[in-house]
Design goal:
Layout lengths: L1 E5 L5 E5 L4 E2 L1 H41 L1 E2 L2 E4 L2 E5 L5 E7 L10 E3 L2 E6 L4 E12 L2 E10 L5 E7 L5 E5 L13 E6 L16 E7 L3 E5 L5 E6 L4 E7 L16 E8 L3 H12 L9 H5 L2 E3 L1 H4 L5 H13 L6 E4 L20 H10 L4 E5 L2 E3 L3 H9 L14 E3 L2 E5 L5 H18 L3 E4 L22 H7 L10 E2 L11 E3 L16 H10 L5 E2 L14 E3 L4 E3 L1 H11 L6 E2 L8 H32 L4 E2 L18 E3 L3 E4 L8 E13 L2 E13 L6 E6 L2
Parallel strand pairs: 20-21, 20-32, 21-22, 22-26, 26-27, 27-28, 28-29
Antiparallel strand pairs: 1-2, 2-3, 4-5, 5-6, 6-7, 7-12, 8-9, 9-10, 10-11, 11-19, 12-18, 13-15, 14-17, 15-16, 16-19, 17-18, 23-25, 24-25, 30-31, 33-34, 34-35, 35-38, 36-37, 36-38
Length: 692
């Protein structure tokens, strides 16, 4: 028989009563499961320790790859706003990071390898102010690769900025699949798929994010409508960009991304931080009274007789003027700086007559010297031209008035020579200022050399625009690149006499809003009615003139009356008394109601850089409807303008943001839509914000 006897705590002994000794063999067999259980428990503990170790490492790695509100992954990064929402997404298209090579020191997160080899990558976090967080990003290849590409997602937001375009939308509406091309100034009138003559490497979104590409980047821009991305590429090979002397020539893509509380305050911060400001306000008279140009009405067939008759008719029909602009072509050949004696037999007498009648006169000029000009040989001998890559011969270019060479404005002697001729014209004829035409880098040959090597071809545009500085009060430029500090009028590119978004009436508001966001506030919105080229005109074409459609012309002048400055070329009296009457009415509205407000805002531009012509979201920061309005605008914060831009319409829908808005037809409380708001042919709808 067996009995159980007590032993040590937790232990039992089995005694064989017959032999009086424990059953050791049986005990050893029964203890094996307990040993195995203990070993298993120890293994589980060890596994838990190892798991905790790696979990801790992953936490530390996750913390390492996060800097403020930016999360870095091997194939891109995401930035979140103050509320924790993902507002900016960038994908690395040309390579992926080796995250094991990443380290973090203070506010700088850096990586030294990609999947293909060595690189210099870093993200530096900079809190510029309590409401703005900025990230400086740099991807620099240390191997001889073709390009670096990052792709920015739209993130269900609306984007603004970049460049003047032939087909201009607000917000941006990039269509199709566009391979990245050099982001340089171009004449979009002749090449409608290029980037325009006014551009900056800056974009802003409705979800309060902004990106600015660094000046040192050989920058190309493309897009994908399908993927809803902008493609940012740095590339030297096969491009007009050249590495700086001493630079490896390996591509580098660097930029800064900033996130703010709202789109308006963020843009104000970006402009104050990164854009130059004009040093003064140009001529107040140009803001108040129209410019009258010979360009669209006479084209290059202008003569002394026609100019004097044009001036006489301005007076005869009761219009005011800031100055008279004599455009193409008053010289014998292009590249000369005196009057053609056949077309202008008594230029001095002509200027004297115009002066007595109260007219100041500006002259058209450009950077080209045609090969048949007497100045071609002079400039060639002095070495003033942009040259072929060898540096021995001038690089001939084709422009809209022939073939010639282009002055090298990186050469101080070329700039001095050019300015000396303009000053000679100014002194001899008492010319007031100049209209500086062209200046886009698209008129440089594909391969060229300049006295000072150009890493970025658009620097040539900047150098040309500086020629306007001595004449800036009434000077006019159609190009701008880092030129916001030049206190002259920036004219949008020539418009066709059509209604649509491709260089037509509908393109004016989106274009003016775009270049205003880029920091160019003293805007001249080209000539009322457009350029009236016969093959690009909706309207009447007769033996002497192509006249834009009458309704188009009237709607165009009504819109222009609410722009910073007005410019006539095709005169109202080319139509009938009704058009003359409407033109007088809106010229008066511009002078008495618009110009005083514009001049007040122009004075503020010098200090702030804030736009004169503003989008509706400027005062409606969280209003989703305001982000998409492209046919209305604000002058300052309290004057809302809603022109008619459709043919055959005498009513339109109008969106009013929050607040009380007063028009001649009543007072309305926004936010609201006014549907079918009546606007007769001789009217334009505008509303003044009023306190209640």
């Amino acid at each position: 028989m067996y009995q159980i006897v007590p032993g040590a705590p937790g232990e039992q002994h089995v005694i064989d009563r017959a032999h009086g000794s424990p059953r050791k063999k049986k005990f050893q067999q029964d203890s094996r499961p307990m040993v195995l259980a203990g070993l298993l428990g120890g293994a589980l503990v060890l596994a838990a320790v190892i798991a905790w170790f790696y979990y801790s490492l992953s936490l530390r790695k996750a913390q390492l790859l996060k800097t403020e509100s930016l999360d870095l992954k091997k194939d891109g990064y995401i930035i979140r706003n103050h509320a924790g929402d993902a507002v900016f997404t960038m994908a690395f298209r040309s390579g992926t990071l080796d995250l094991d090579s990443c380290t973090k020191e203070g506010h700088i997160l850096g990586c030294t390898r990609s999947e293909t080899g060595k690189l210099n990558f870093f993200i530096q976090t900079v809190r510029e102010k309590d409401t703005v967080m900025c990230y400086h990003i740099r991807w620099e290849e240390l191997l001889d690769v073709n390009s670096v590409e990052h792709a920015m997602a739209y993130n269900d937001s609306h984007w603004y900025g970049g460049a003047e375009m032939a087909t201009q939308y607000w917000p941006m509406r990039n269509q199709g699949e566009e391979e990245p091309s050099p982001f340089i100034t171009s004449d979009v009138y002749s090449n409608r798929n290029a980037f325009g003559g006014i551009l900056e490497r800056y974009w802003l979104s409705s979800n309060a994010t902004a990106i600015k590409i660094n000046d040192s980047v050989p920058f190309h821009l493309g897009w994908s409508e399908k993927n809803r991305t902008l493609r940012f590429v740095a590339r030297y090979k096969g491009s007009p960009f050249k590495p700086l002397v001493g630079h490896s020539g390996f591509p580098e893509l660097s930029y800064r991304v900033c996130v703010g509380l709202d789109v308006t305050s963020l843009h104000k911060y970006m402009v104050r931080r990164y854009f130059p400001k004009p040093i003064s306000v140009p001529s107040h008279e140009v803001f108040r009274k129209p410019v009258w140009s010979t360009r669209a009405f006479y084209k290059s067939a202008v003569t002394q007789e026609k100019l004097l008759r044009y001036a006489s008719d301005i007076i005869k029909y009761g219009f005011k003027w800031s100055h008279l602009e004599l455009d193409d072509r008053y010289t014998t050949d292009y590249g000369e700086f005196d009057f053609d004696p056949q077309k202008f037999p008594n230029a001095s007498g002509m200027f004297e007559k115009l002066r007595k009648d109260g007219f100041q006169v500006t002259l058209w000029t450009h950077p080209f010297i045609n090969y048949d000009s007497i100045n071609f040989g002079v400039a060639l001998e002095k070495g003033l031209f942009v040259r072929e890559p060898s540096g021995d011969l001038p690089a001939l270019v084709r422009w809209w008035n022939g073939i010639g060479a282009i002055l090298d404005f990186t050469n101080p002697e070329a700039s001095k020579w050019f300015l000396s001729h303009l000053n000679s014209l100014k002194r001899h004829y008492n010319v007031t200022s100049f209209k500086f035409d062209a200046g886009e880098t698209s008129y440089l040959p594909r391969q060229f050399s300049t006295l000072v090597p150009l890493s970025d071809p658009s620097t040539f545009t900047r150098r040309y625009s500086e020629m306007a500085i001595p004449f800036s009060s009434r000077a006019e430029l159609r190009v701008g690149y880092q030129s916001q500090n030049i206190s002259c009028f920036f004219r949008i590119i020539n418009r066709d006499s059509v209604w649509g978004y491709e260089l037509g009436l509908k393109s004016i508001i989106p274009t003016v809003l775009t270049i205003s966001i880029l920091g160019y506030q003293f805007v001249l919105p080209d000539m009322i009615g457009g350029n009236a080229y016969p093959n690009r005109t909706a309207g009447l074409i007769n033996e002497t003139h192509a006249l834009p459609d009458k309704e188009l012309y009237i709607r165009w002048l009504e819109l222009s009356a609410f722009m910073p400055a007005m410019e006539f070329s095709i005169p109202p009296w080319a139509y009938d008394d009704e058009v003359v009457k409407i033109a007088r009415k809106f010229s008066e509205i511009h002078e008495t109601e618009v110009a005083p407000r514009v001049l007040e805002l122009a004075g503020e531009v010098v200090g702030t850089g804030d736009p004169i012509i503003r989008p509706l979201w400027w005062i409606a920061k969280d209003d989703k409807a305001a982000f998409k309005i492209d046919s209305q605008f604000l002058i300052g914060d309290d004057l809302l303008v809603a022109p008619v831009l459709e043919p055959g319409e005498q009513e339109r829908d109008i969106y009013l943001p929050a607040g009380h808005w007063k028009s001649k037809k009543g007072t309305y409380k926004g936010p609201m839509y006014l549907t079918d708001y009546p606007v007769d042919l001789d009217e334009l709808a505008y509303f003044l914000w009023v306190e209640t």
